[in-house]
Automatic annotation (TrEMBL):
Protein name: NAD(P)H-dependent oxidoreductase
Entry GO terms, CC: cytosol
Domain Flavodoxin-like fold: 1-214
Similarity comment text for this entry: Belongs to the NAD(P)H dehydrogenase (quinone) family.
Keywords: Oxidoreductase
Superkingdom of the source species: Bacteria
Pfam families (alphabetical): Flavodoxin_2
Keyword Oxidoreductase (UniProt): yes
PANTHER family from the UniProt entry: NAD P H OXIDOREDUCTASE-RELATED (PTHR10204), NAD(P)H DEHYDROGENASE [QUINONE] 1 ISOFORM 1 (PTHR10204:SF34)
GO MF, one example: NAD(P)H dehydrogenase (quinone) activity
InterPro entries: Flavodoxin_fold (IPR003680), Flavoprotein-like_sf (IPR029039), NAD(P)H_dehydrogenase_qn (IPR051545)
Length: 263
């Protein structure tokens, strides 16, 4: 299996860096091939702007989706973006690794998504009509590939529980899991989350590292998050609302987009 890890932490010699080493070592030991995109080491350009579209006319307005679509179709995106797209196509499984900063991913990783997920590559694909709104949410270029998040948080698990002040971790990660991974077609695995990392010593790190090794051993067999697919009869087109009667008893918010009966 080919595994791409997109690593977003400014300090390689950190707890996140140690977790990366654990993951790479275990995956390699299992016989998988691993590539790492270390965004800070690569000095990844975060902001999407006119420089991303070399063929865009100097006097033309920048409409990012159109410039992205035209650039991708003409094979005219910048070399750094094209290299990351090639890694995504190569990978069978993609892992996004990052510390949770202000309830989201670091800006450099969001910038990676903004620039690499070009129109025609990660979105804007498939038939667009009154009956079908493209290949997305379970379909698309990344269909058949697996993906997961590897996240560190300074807070306690209780802080991110159903009654915790920060809100449930699954809710905080929904825009990434559902909107960034599931949208272009990835099968999304439950995230690996390490809590209370700011004060983690070697003794506390050891069981976390072992848990991560177990997750790396089961990437191919772990049951994914059962998100509902867009074009399989659960949503009304064109409003994209869940059809009446499909909401599980007691479900609300993001939970309504889960279909536990499906793999």
């Amino acid at each position: 299996m080919n595994v791409l890890i997109v690593f977003a932490h400014p300090e390689r010699h950190s707890l996140n860096g140690a977790l990366l080493d654990v993951a790479v070592a275990e995956l390699t030991a299992q016989g998988h091939e691993v590539k790492v995109s270390d965004l800070y080491a690569m000095h990844w350009k975060s902001a999407i702007d006119r420089d991303d579209f070399p063929t865009l006319a100097d006097d033309g307005p920048l409409k990012v989706w159109k410039a992205s679509n035209d650039g991708f179709a003409a094979d005219a995106l910048t070399p750094d973006v094209k290299a990351e797209q090639e890694k995504l196509l190569w990978a069978d499984t993609v892992i996004l690794q990052f510390p949770l900063w202000w309830f989201a991913m670091p800006a450099i990783l969001k910038g990676w998504v903004d620039r690499v997920y070009a129109s025609g590559f990660a979105y804007g694909v498939g038939e667009h009509s009154d009956q079908r709104w493209g290949d997305r949410y379970g379909e698309g270029v990344m269909a058949g590939k697996r993906a997961m998040l590897m996240v560190t948080a300074g807070g306690w698990p209780e802080h991110y529980s159903d009654r915790g002040i920060n809100g449930p971790m699954d809710d905080l990660l929904f825009p990434i899991n559902h909107g960034i991974l599931f949208y272009p077609g990835f099968t999304v695995l439950p995230p690996f989350v390490a809590y209370r990392v700011d004060r983690m010593d070697e003794a506390k790190f050891a069981p976390v590292a072992e848990q991560l090794r177990e997750r790396m051993k089961t990437l191919e067999t772990t049951t994914p998050i059962p998100y509902r697919k867009q074009n399989f009869g659960d949503y009304q087109i064109p409003t994209m609302e869940l059809l009446p009667g499909l909401t599980p008893p007691g479900a609300r918010g993001f939970e309504v987009h889960l279909a536990p009966e499906r793999d």
